[in-house]
Design brief:
Length: 283
């Protein structure tokens, strides 16, 4: 989950462009590329990738090297790492797409460039892992990266998927609070991944039941990991929010609401497995 460093840098640098754009992404007309905006996106991306490489090298790759080999951490994490690879590559691809579009790149090309950059970096990381003795190249992680990088393209060309969003949340686990991890982003038990289903997904009669900004979310988490194949899978069903449907207009507010839509905020939730628990609010 060290790729979170890449994600947060994306949030800080790339969304600065979106926060001050004159037109929203959905309403602006793109007629030409703006060189100064494109320079911001490209230089920001270069800085982000460089910083991410340095962080990965210092944390993981400068140790003992080996011949290229394969490994899959999905068993040890009950596939939580696969959900993480999909989600974080999806978000970075979506942010890059929005940034290229803000710079005047036509939509089809902005989607292509964003997917290519996000996926290339993630596959580069996987390849370096393959030469690191303690890690290894994971085919499952690579497939999740591919799916995540391409998901914004699917959302654009098949509008029904615009209301099928993937979100993330975290809450410190007992192991994290006990000091087992230096940072929360290394602890899979502290993280939850959500599939948020909006209005377009459900029949029209539900419009009279749920406000437009409320969604139904299905969540996944893990507990009790023991670095082999032990642990528990947690499945949740609850409410979620589509912040883009809340009142308020303007370029800055639009950008803020879009960023908030990447995160699952606390909401009434039912844990279905391993045993049923009702939460007034769950992260």
């Amino acid at each position: 989950m060290r790729r979170l460093i890449f994600l947060w840098l994306c949030f800080i640098v790339l969304t600065k462009c979106n926060a001050y754009q004159k037109d929203t992404l959905t309403n602006s007309s793109q007629s030409e590329v703006h060189p100064e905006r494109l320079a911001i996106v490209l230089s920001g991306s270069a800085l982000i990738l460089t910083a991410a490489h340095i962080q990965n090298y210092n944390s993981w790759w400068k140790g003992e090297r080996s011949r290229f080999h394969f490994s899959d951490g999905g068993i040890r994490t009950l596939s939580a790492d696969k959900a993480g690879h999909f989600y974080f590559t999806y978000v970075s691809s979506d942010l890059l797409n929005r940034s290229f579009y803000w710079a005047g790149v036509e939509r089809s090309k902005s989607l292509l460039y964003a997917a290519a950059i996000s996926l290339s970096f993630q596959l580069y990381v996987e390849t370096e892992d393959g030469f690191t003795k303690a890690l290894g190249f994971s085919g499952g992680d690579a497939l999740a990266d591919i799916a995540g990088a391409l998901y914004p393209t699917l959302q654009y060309y098949v509008p029904w998927f615009e209301d099928v969003r993937f979100k993330w949340s975290c809450y410190p686990s007992a192991r994290f609070r006990a000091g087992s991890y230096q940072t929360i982003i290394d602890d899979y038990e502290s993280m939850y991944f959500w599939l948020s289903l909006g209005r377009k997904v459900f029949p029209s009669f539900t419009e009279s039941i749920l406000p437009s900004f409320l969604c139904i979310a299905v969540g996944y988490g893990v507990t009790g990991l023991d670095r082999s194949d032990g642990g528990n899978r947690e499945l949740f069903i609850g409410l979620d929010y589509d912040f883009t449907r809340l009142p308020g207009r303007g370029s800055f507010l639009t950008a803020v609401k879009q960023i908030m839509n990447y995160i699952h905020f606390p909401a009434p939730t039912i844990r279905v497995t391993p045993r049923v628990i009702l939460y007034g609010f769950h992260f």
